Amino acid sequence: MPAPRAYTAILAWLEDQLRTGVISVGEKLPGERHLAEQFEISRASVREAIRVLDAMGLVRSATGSGPSAGAVVISEPSTALAWALRMHIATQALPIGDIVEARLLLETQAALESEKRPDSPERRRILEEAAQLLDEMDTPGLPADRFHESDAQFHILLTSLAGNVVVETMMASLREATIGYVQETVSGLESWPEVSCTLQEQHRGVLQAVRERRGEDAAEALRHHITWFYGLSDHR
Amino acid sequence: MPAPRAYTAILAWLEDQLRTGVISVGEKLPGERHLAEQFEISRASVREAIRVLDAMGLVRSATGSGPSAGAVVISEPSTALAWALRMHIATQALPIGDIVEARLLLETQAALESEKRPDSPERRRILEEAAQLLDEMDTPGLPADRFHESDAQFHILLTSLAGNVVVETMMASLREATIGYVQETVSGLESWPEVSCTLQEQHRGVLQAVRERRGEDAAEALRHHITWFYGLSDHR
DNA sequence: CCCGCACTGTGGTCTGACCACAGTGGTCAG
DNA sequence: CTGACCACTGTGGTCAGACCACAGTGCGGG
């Protein structure tokens, strides 16, 4: 019993409320002052709990009044995980190489899995959106950061075809967390136009393989695509 | 420009300090009062930042005085991620089925990868430890929760053989986050002694395959092991 | 020499206050 | 009656200052 912090009461309470379905995504939490009274802790402690929930992507709080104000339960694990990942990468506890490898693993397996998924409007919509993204990325003179953002989005879309929310979330987190490093690498590259062109060719190859349900081909193309690009950086 | 919260200054500062190596794991942060003065924010805001970092597994703070007191930079992503995962599972945004599938994916791929890793004292130590865990789990009358804890530890150890910290971390998080659900499922099982016996047989089979570098066999055994056990629950 | 206790600085918590913000509802001019 | 306007109210965001428990530190007495 080493010091159960005051705010943990709220976290435990929320978890229970969520599990039992009393509160679900989209609903509002009671006001901070109300929670403080209810748990007999200070508002400062309540706020610490809210901060933690916010950092986890479980809650979004807004000022003002009316229905849109207050702490609303959301579920955005990927942005929160991405943030946490970035910080842990900064500590150098998580080597970039391992990140890339993990990402490769998730993405190739997702490609293999998506091969087996039945056709659906959802699937067609995703493929369509992915194709559009690629087209946008062909825009001449597109800023590198826009390119990378669309690039990340493209990969996440492909992963989502596997239909596994958890895998998709992990992919999104890894991607968002590393996008800064990607930009850093590329900014030191003189041959960016050629590189982006090659990347686009690879993207189209992957998309084509996925569309035609050639899972093995897609996975292999992804592997080549990712390792090739990662090889451009100096990994110091 | 929508309201940059006061405490984000500290988060950004810490990330920078970590990336540039000014601060690294194991070192202490300045005191809360000092940080408050340095960033010209209130101590309450500083504490919110520390809370967030704490929730992310980046910092551990302790009371008292001397070198052991204060906020120390650590790097324990797995416990933090596990906590976040559990909460998001509670919101039902992350279906258990997807969690199990993701875990299966990571673990089988890790088994395939570990096949290729060279021998090393590290590897031998891990295999030894895994074997010991299995022996402990054979103890008659072992409480179910102890069994599951060792079980989780066993799987994480196997995953660590692949030598990828990120994959290992994700596995550990998934495992820790779901352990509660596992216990819930098992507690409604009357044939637990038989089940645990079967699980142990499967564990030994997996360990044997890994030890002998039969990656495919290990992966297949893991797949069977996990899907079989997951099949015992009713997935409502 | 060693034991014990006051001292000091740390995080943990609380109180009470003020601010900016955004809906709400009333008022008043047209 | 209709519309624009504005004070009101409740929300989160921030702050200042205080007190507590805790754990090392170091001085003092035995």
TrEMBL record, chains A, B:
Stored InterPro entries: GntR_C, TF_FadR/GntR_C, Tscrpt_reg_HTH_GntR, WH-like_DNA-bd_sf, WH_DNA-bd_sf
Keyword presence, Repeat: no
Keywords assigned: DNA-binding, Transcription, Transcription regulation
Pfam families cross-referenced by the UniProt entry: FCD, GntR
SMART domains per record: FCD (SM00895), HTH_GNTR (SM00345)
Residue ranges of coiled coil: none
HTH gntR-type domain location: 4-76
Name listed for the protein in its UniProt record: GntR family transcriptional regulator
